[in-house]
């Protein structure tokens, strides 16, 4: 489905940005790059910034007009720095990502079009787009670097694609470790821990056994909100056991021997 | 609220990436940049890539250690390319953006930490973070350019911030509903606590001082995710102090007298 999505860069001035865009695309699982009259291409600078995404540069299509770049496309998204005179369907990157994946999944051929570093897309070019996408930057400093703009849009495509695949956005399949992958301590284990903790605090003279309430309540609140795992609980209980031995002077005796 | 958020770049090799990160930050309305031992800075290349965000470079703080960079922080997010052996609370960029804005709105001082271009953050550095953030890239080509990684995370912060601004009643409600009425412990207070904890565990023979890594990592994870308040930290430190006395046999001596 991702192969139905192409990134189109129009009249790019700095070849480094083409390389940066290629890298961003490959990071996000996209591969099809179309360049409309780039000022310099191919280029060592593009290769350097691509940092391993040179396959995307090598297979990039170089064309003379936006029309050629959009050949076969059924849905075109154009990035726009600001509102234009003509009102147009405007999306933020997240909405674009959702729409791109929805439509690509139904077989649409999709283009994400990015304009010149200094002046973006012309009004004529923007009118060839079905949707305009605006990255919500600070109005006081609104112009993103071309490669980072490509990164934001392709990131939203990937987030949306992962969600559509039913894949988690944060843990790769081969990765095991979630903080919740460990079994949590049960409520009664937690209670036994609090009892043990209280006895230990009394043993080290930290807690007055006559009025344990306030301090124990605070400690319960602290550990209670942490979702302590069983493994962690075992560590804490181990610490308490050793502390009790220390309180009985056993460590000192052992060292004296 | 956005001024409570700092971006921390650790041991950056290429000054161009520092400039690119500064530009991305300014685009997204952030301004506070901290550099931990950058290889080259200041630099013309950084200025060129900053493309007008030179004010951020000029006011950037250069420090020698990550610890200094995190001084005063109450919540730290570290970017991670992959999972480590020890499971850690892991967020995707969107979840991070939501959490950053929620916590910054309640006065938290927040750091977004980015590692080296080639090798990211070390395990030690990652263990100083409360949350790890993974940008869901293609596992076959997963390493993002540093500046574009900064762009993705700061974009999500801005999206979340804009949403929060558009629904002021929701933010007010969250603030009222928050259990968080206490001031949080800062990162350096937390570090001093871990040091104290480690010394104490050695004193009670629970921790082998030759290989403290794994156990301390687990304990850092446990306390790190709890957002420990300053008052709670004082209680924990008090317990440690009494435990150390017990380990020295002082309690026993007192009772023997």
Brief characterization of the structure:
2 copies of one chain form a homodimer. With 257 residues, the first copy, chain A, is an alpha/beta fold.
- Largest beta sheet: strand ordering of chain A: 3-2-1-6-4-7-5
CATH superfamily of the largest domain in chain A: SPOUT methyltransferase, trefoil knot domain
Number of domains of chain A: 2
**In the CATH hierarchy, what is the architecture of the largest domain in chain A at level 2?**
3-Layer(aba) Sandwich
Uncertain ranges of chain A: 172-180
Classify the beta-strand content of chain A into a percent band.
5-15%
Termini separation of chain A (Å)?
A: 73 Å
CATH topology of the largest domain in chain A: Alpha/beta knot
The most extensive interface, with participating residues per chain, is: A-B, 71 and 73 residues
What is the oligomer described by this structure? Answer: homodimer
Main sheet properties of chain A: 7 strands, parallel
Overall 3D shape of chain A: elongated
Number of strands of chain A: 7
Q: Would you tell me the structural class of the helices and strands of chain A?
A: alpha/beta
User: How much helicity do the residues of chain A have?
Assistant: 40-55%
Mean pLDDT of chain A: 88
Description:
Two copies of one chain form a homodimer. Chain A has eleven helices and seven strands. Chain A starts with a strand and ends with a helix. Helix content of chain A is 47%, strand content 11%. In chain A, strands 3-2-1-6-4-7-5 form a seven-stranded parallel beta sheet. About 4% of the residues of chain A have low confidence. Chain A is an alpha/beta fold and 257 residues long. The longest helix of chain A is centred in the middle third of the chain and has 20 residues. The first copy, chain A, has two domains: 164 residues, Alpha/beta knot; 70 residues, Helicase, Ruva Protein, domain 3 (Orthogonal Bundle), CATH 1.10.8. In chain A, strand 1, helix 1 and strand 2 form a beta-alpha-beta unit. Chains A and B meet through helix 1, helix 7, helix 9, helix 10 and helix 11 of A and helix 1, strand 5, helix 5, helix 7 and helix 10 of B. Chains A, B: InterPro entries: Alpha/beta_knot_MTases, RNA_MeTrfase_TrmJ/LasT, SpoU_MeTrfase, tRNA_m1G_MTases_N. Chains A, B: Catalyzes the formation of 2'O-methylated cytidine (Cm32) or 2'O-methylated uridine (Um32) at position 32 in tRNA. Chains A, B: It catalyses: uridine(32) in tRNA + S-adenosyl-L-methionine = 2'-O-methyluridine(32) in tRNA + S-adenosyl-L-homocysteine + H(+); cytidine(32) in tRNA + S-adenosyl-L-methionine = 2'-O-methylcytidine(32) in tRNA + S-adenosyl-L-homocysteine + H(+). Chains A, B: One of its GO terms (molecular function) is RNA binding. Chains A, B: One of its GO terms (cellular component) is cytosol.
């Amino acid at each position: 489905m991702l192969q139905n999505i192409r990134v189109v860069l129009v009249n790019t001035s700095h070849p480094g940005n083409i390389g940066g865009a290629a890298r961003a695309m490959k990071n996000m699982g996209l591969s099809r790059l179309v360049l409309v009259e780039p000022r310099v291409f191919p280029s060592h600078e593009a290769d350097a910034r691509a940092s391993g995404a040179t396959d995307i540069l090598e297979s990039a299509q170089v064309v003379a007009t936006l029309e050629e770049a959009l050949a076969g496309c059924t849905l075109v998204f154009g990035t726009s720095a600001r509102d234009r005179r003509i009102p147009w369907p405007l999306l933020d990157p997240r909405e674009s990502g959702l729409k791109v994946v929805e439509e690509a999944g139904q077989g649409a051929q999709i283009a994400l079009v990015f304009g010149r570093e200094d002046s973006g897309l012309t009004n004529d070019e923007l009118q060839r787009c079905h949707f305009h996408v605006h990255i919500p930057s600070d109005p006081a400093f609104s112009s993103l670097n071309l490669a980072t703009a490509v990164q934001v849009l392709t990131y939203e495509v990937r987030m949306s694609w992962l969600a559509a695949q039913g894949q988690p956005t944060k843990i790769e399949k081969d990765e095991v470790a979630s903080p919740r992958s460990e079994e949590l301590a049960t409520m009664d284990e937690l209670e036994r821990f609090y009892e043990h903790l209280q006895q230990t605090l009394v043993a080290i003279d930290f807690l007055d056994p006559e009025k344990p309430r306030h301090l124990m309540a605070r400690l319960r609140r602290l550990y209670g909100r942490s979702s302590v795992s069983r493994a962690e609980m075992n560590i804490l209980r181990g610490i308490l056991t050793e502390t009790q031995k220390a309180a009985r002077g056993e460590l000192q005796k052992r060292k004296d021997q």
